[in-house]
Specification:
- The chain has nine helices and ten strands.
- It is an alpha+beta fold.
- The strands form two sheets. Strands 4, 5, 6, 7, 8 and 10 form a six-stranded mixed beta sheet that branches. A four-stranded antiparallel beta sheet has the order 2-1-3-9.
- Helix 6 packs parallel to helix 8 and helix 7 crosses helix 9.
Length: 287
């Protein structure tokens, strides 16, 4: 299904009903890709608001108030007279990704798309006006500007509906969750913008047995765990050692990376620093 263009007002409502039928909470957007403002009764959240769309809040306003929290899968609400004025003025349809169990990585320019293709696991993608939405299965906190041109939309957020996209929906990876972790990083910043996939490249596999790779990961984890000083440097060197031996064959998985990140975070490193250290190690090796 594509974003409707003819007979737009009725088609927007129909698109919302189609989404609702598949369990995706929908809402109308006005011009500028903005939700409709609160009604007079709900102005400044005087009604108490809707803290969670899946748990009834104190607000009983029938209008599409409270931005993302107005999204619903209830067809009687979507077609109610209270929502009719909004559909008549609607410029687009949006949905609440978190309410549908999804996370959208919103890539707003060509550089962001290049970064995603090199760094994130393939998943369902939807073309947007300026870039792409990469949609993953799983929820997390929403946060804007995690990188230049990259927003994360999931819980307590909305995304414009532009069609189902293409490709199979992958599970939400650890590298996307890590992007939402706030806090300064002390890792040496990479001088290159584009980084390679977190799971490595295609090449000659040096593993004699599956245990060979597991031992390498275990040794790196132990090195990080045993560090009693210079933790930042130890984490970076451990990542560098793993990638120098296993970074080109494509055998590293999210599970292996998660083990390394978990060990580093147990020593007080932030998830963002782990991503930076991993990226810097790849850059140093030319991966």
């Amino acid at each position: 299904m594509t974003q409707p263009t003819d007979n737009r007002r009725a088609s927007f409502a129909d698109a919302a009903l189609d989404l609702a039928a598949t369990g995706v909470p929908a809402l109308p957007l006005r011009a500028g890709k903005l939700p409709f403002g609160n009604c007079r009764t709900c102005a400044n959240n005087a009604c108490g608001g809707r803290p969670n769309m899946r748990v009834p809040g104190p607000c009983v306003c029938p209008a599409p108030c409270h931005a993302w929290a107005a999204a619903t899968t209830d067809p009687t609400v979507l077609t109610s007279p209270a929502w009719a004025p909004a559909w008549q003025q609607a410029a687009a349809v949006a949905y609440h990704p978190g309410g549908a169990g999804m996370t959208v990585v919103d890539l707003d320019n060509a550089d962001a798309i290049t970064w995603a293709r090199a760094t994130l696991p393939a998943t369902r993608t939807v073309a947007t006006t300026r870039g792409e939405h990469w949609i993953y299965r799983g929820v997390m906190q929403s946060v804007n500007a995690v990188m230049l041109g990259v927003d994360i939309k999931s819980l307590m957020s909305y995304a414009r509906w532009l069609g189902p996209g293409t490709g199979a929906t992958a599970a939400l990876p650890a590298v996307v969750r890590a992007l939402a972790v706030k806090g300064p990083s002390t890792a040496r910043k990479a001088t290159q913008v584009h980084v390679a996939s977190i799971t490595g490249q295609s090449g000659v596999c040096p593993h004699r047995t599956p245990a060979y790779l597991d031992r390498g990961i275990a040794m790196a984890v132990q090195r990080i765990t045993d560090a009693d000083r210079a933790v930042h440097a130890t984490v970076y060197r451990a990542f560098l050692a793993v990638l120098s031996r296993h970074g080109r064959c494509g055998c590293l998985t999210e599970g292996h990376v998660t083990r390394l990140f978990t060990a580093a975070q147990a020593k007080g490193e932030s998830a963002r620093h782990c991503v930076d250290a991993w990226t810097n190690a790849r850059t140093a090796l030319g991966l």
